[in-house]
Structure to design on (563 residues):
């Protein structure tokens, strides 16, 4: 009786694990996820070191709500504003999703700056993590551009004049400024093409670039490990990487 | 394996790639500005490209095999199962195939990318001629009265194309009519400049004088003391000269013409400053620049070329 229930239990476990094993055998994904999620981190990390994940979460919220908003938003000089009105006032929970996207944008930017401040004050940008910092700066620039391009999309007076001023600030850049401004504007004045090109940049070009850079950013975080706080006495990071210049003699990265 | 052997062509730096790139840039810029530049750029690109390829493929580096050192056998016979390195390949053919694969890939990539990039960049710079706008009969513009005139520059674009001009009929200058037509785009960053004075119009305490002509709204104004910008405090006098605040030049103006008794607004232009007033004003006129850009003085050297607009 006892042996039978043990073997049944094992059978059950194997049945449950079978799909995972199937995937792991073919793709190695389970190992990759384990490598990604179950890493050694210093014992004395604190809440400040969750700001990066918080920023990532904020971006994922923006991406998700943005995809859904794009199902109702109609970019066009005569339709954009009314479709925003419809999303906000008529559609079920439209006000909520638009609000998440609108306020989430500010949350995303604020979290990026807080994360950046944490990295700076902890000295986490130093060797061997300079490249992580540089990619983060690229992400900050792309995030700000998302804010700039997204601001035009409601197509109201605020959007129009803010974008006018923003484009004309670009226009004051030396030598190429006038060309940059006219390129952004899609013509001699702000017109329907300005809206659709900002929409395309906002929802296709920049998010794609941000996803790619986040991938690189995370890869470097995983490869190099998490920094200890400045006051830590503990060497931080990952196990030895053969031939990795970032590893010290003990196979650790601080 | 010696890397220098593997890429026998990568040793010498040459100017040809740069001249080729310059030619391509000339072609793209020329499409906007002049066909002569396109021709020069095309000739430059083809010539430099040819010389580049010739330099890479020729010069006896690619198709010829370098001196092959005679193989030397070790005095000791290797063990039977020892790894025997394969004979060093002759790199000429391999390098040729590598280069032609990369080259063909680059050509295909370029053929796909160039039109797409051109489609993204060029349309905002082509066909940007200003269309004239009929703002109504000249009788709507009494002599020495400012009329705030709001018109649609392109009705197909809807309300977003609405522009505003401040129009003052200066009466006759000799046998020609004179109008001062000032754009409301602030010369700082393009915010809408407002007249400093009461407007007549619907709901105004000064009376209902608002007029409508098709899409054009005409609102006369009483004694205007100048123009002010609500965004950053730029201030102008009644000729559009900057008197205070961040603007870098005077307000832009519209050219005009009169046909069949109607006033037509033509292409706008930029103004550094205006001497005198009204019909006697001497306007220092420049090609239309974006707000915030100097059109005269040393600072204008920062903006040597304006796109067609």
């Amino acid at each position: 009786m006892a042996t039978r229930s043990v073997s049944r239990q094992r059978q059950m476990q194997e049945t449950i694990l079978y799909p995972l094993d199937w995937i792991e055998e073919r793709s190695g994904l389970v190992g990759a996820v384990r490598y990604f999620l179950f890493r050694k981190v210093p014992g004395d990390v604190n809440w400040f070191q969750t700001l990066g994940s918080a920023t990532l979460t904020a971006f994922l919220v923006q991406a998700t709500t943005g995809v859904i908003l794009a199902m109702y938003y109609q970019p066009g000089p005569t339709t954009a504003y009314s479709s925003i009105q419809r999303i906000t006032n008529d559609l079920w929970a439209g006000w909520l999703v638009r609000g998440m996207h609108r306020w989430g944008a500010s949350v995303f930017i604020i979290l990026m700056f807080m994360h950046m401040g944490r990295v700076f004050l902890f000295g986490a940008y130093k060797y061997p993590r300079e490249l992580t910092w540089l990619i983060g700066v690229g992400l900050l620039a792309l995030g700000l551009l998302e804010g700039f391009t997204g601001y035009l999309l409601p197509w109201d007076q605020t959007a129009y004049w803010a974008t006018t001023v923003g484009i004309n600030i670009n226009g004051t850049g030396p030598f190429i400024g006038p060309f940059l401004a006219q390129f952004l504007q899609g013509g001699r004045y702000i017109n329907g093409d300005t809206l659709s090109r900002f929409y395309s940049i906002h929802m296709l070009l920049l998010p794609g670039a941000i996803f790619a850079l986040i991938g690189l950013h995370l890869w470097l975080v995983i490869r190099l490990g998490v920094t200890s706080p400045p006051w830590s006495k503990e060497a931080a990071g990952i196990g030895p990487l053969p031939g990795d210049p970032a590893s010290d003699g003990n196979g650790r990265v601080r | 394996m010696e890397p220098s052997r593997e890429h026998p062509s990568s040793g010498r730096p040459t100017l040809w790639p740069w001249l080729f790139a310059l030619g391509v840039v000339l072609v793209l810029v020329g499409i906007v500005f002049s066909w002569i530049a396109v021709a020069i750029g095309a000739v430059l690109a083809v010539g430099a490209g040819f010389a580049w390829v010739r330099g890479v493929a020729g010069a006896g580096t690619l198709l010829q095999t370098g001196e092959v050192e005679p193989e030397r056998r070790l005095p000791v016979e290797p063990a039977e199962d020892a790894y025997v390195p394969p004979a060093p390949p002759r790199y000429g053919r391999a390098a040729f195939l590598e280069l032609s694969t990369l080259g063909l890939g680059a050509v295909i990539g370029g053929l796909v990318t160039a039109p797409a990039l051109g489609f993204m960049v060029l349309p905002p710079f082509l066909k940007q001629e200003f269309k004239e706008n009929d703002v109504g009969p000249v009788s709507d513009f009494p002599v020495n009265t400012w009329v705030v005139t709001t018109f649609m520059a392109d009705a197909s674009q809807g309300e977003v194309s609405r522009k505003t001009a401040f129009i003052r009929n200066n009466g006759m200058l000799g046998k020609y009519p004179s109008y001062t037509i000032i754009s409301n785009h602030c010369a700082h960053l393009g915010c809408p400049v407002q007249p400093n004075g009461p407007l007549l119009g619907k709901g105004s305490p000064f009376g209902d004088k608002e007029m409508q002509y098709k899409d054009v709204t005409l609102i006369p104004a009483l004694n205007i003391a100048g123009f002010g910008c609500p965004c950053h405090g730029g201030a102008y006098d009644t000729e559009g000269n900057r008197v205070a605040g961040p603007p870098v030049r005077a307000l832009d103006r519209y050219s005009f013409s009169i046909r069949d008794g109607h006033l037509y607004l033509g292409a706008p232009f930029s103004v550094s400053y205006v001497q005198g007033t009204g019909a006697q004003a001497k306007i220092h006129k420049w090609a239309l620049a974006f707000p915030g850009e100097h059109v005269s003085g040393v600072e204008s050297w920062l903006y040597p070329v304006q796109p067609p607009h």
